Amino acid sequence: MIQVILTYIVNVIIVFVFFPILESAVQLVYPFSWDWFIKPLHLADKLDVYIVLSIALPIIVAIGLFLPPFSWLAHLLQGERKPSAGEAEYIEPLLEELCTRSGVSRNTLTLRMRTDEDINAFASGINHITIYTGALSGLEERHLLGVLAHELGHLRNRDTIYLTITYAMDRLGQLILNLVILLNGALNILALIPIVNIVIRIIQIVLLVMIAAVEYVLRLPKWITYYFDSRRREYAADAYAVSIGLGRELREGLVALGLATEQIGMLETGELYDRESTGFFSRLFITHPKMIKRIQRIDEGIEVYELKQSLLWDRMIRKLNASNRAE
Question: Which of 92, 116, 241, 327 has the fewest CB atoms within 10 Å, i.e. is most exposed?
């Protein structure tokens, strides 16, 4: 949620600052009036138009990405597809078990595939889970089930909704920035005119400074939330998998992934150790916690989960014994 709020604020500023510049460029080519927008909303002047657009555009774009045509297009552009018959035959029993354990209806989940040899899967939108083909070949069946439980955790925790909204608003800001960059490039044509050359170059320098500043500002929400929020979401999704009894499956899946990607190593005794070499400052810009730390937290969660299950089982047996004695 922090990232959504910060991204929204950043995009409101970007629209408010750059939209008048883009509008002025359009007015030179195709003069038009804002009366059609001002009168129905009872706005006072053009400044009110900029304020309304700045506030409304990021929200409109964010909502639009959830609508079927735009959602479908977004998944298509990311190389996602429906699973083949063979893939569906392999994955569907896992999804059925996952839904049984979690209490989620299978009909509410949409499965997508991506042809990629990386061992990966991710959740997106309201109900999408995408599996890389590399995960089918690189993970055992039960390990893949654990990974799917983690991704379902993201959906249940609404992480994907926040991230989709953030992505949509971020694309808006990037689009406006790209249009300003194109405008700045187009000014090179006017710079060929000797009389206005100096003025155009000054304008270009100002725009370049503004573009550089905005590119930096666009990254701020990500930088801030990577350390404070993104890793928390990963731990929470891991905890969800543990809570529905798939902690061991997820743990072994992460161990297999960690060994394959050399994020962790294993001693002859079976003890795991960290092999990631990223420094402190590099880690500030990485969304996922260290693999070894995730596994350690999952181990702790499994221990607590199994203890609770044992206590519940003992309580159930005592109640059953007490009921039999009463009879």
Answer: 327
Distance CA 129, CA 122 (A): 6
Helices marked H in the chain: 2-29, 35-41, 46-64, 68-77, 85-102, 133-138, 141-156, 159-190, 197-225, 231-243, 247-260, 280-283, 291-326
Beta-carbon contacts of 175 under 8 Å, excluding residues fewer than 6 positions away, are none
- In sequence order, what are the residues at sequence separation of 6 or more whose Cβ sits closer than 8 angstroms to the Cβ of residue 257? 119, 138, 139, 263, 291
Q: How far apart are CA 84 and CA 77, in angstroms?
A: 19
Global pTM? 0.78
Residue 233 CA to residue 2 CA, distance in Å, equals: 12
- DSSP for 183-234 reads HHHHHHHHTTSTTTHHHHHHHHHHHHHHHHHHHHHHHHHHHHHIIIIIHHHH
Q: Which of 101, 221, 78, 113 is nearest to 162 (CA)?
A: 221
- Structural element, H or E, at residue 274: strand 272-274
Cβ neighbors of 185 (< 8 A, separation 6 or more) are: none
At residue 33, the 3 state secondary structure works out as coil
Which residue's entry shows tokens 């920035």? Answer: 177
Give the 3-state DSSP-derived string for 53-67, with helices as H, strands as E and coil as C: HHHHHHHHHHHHCCC
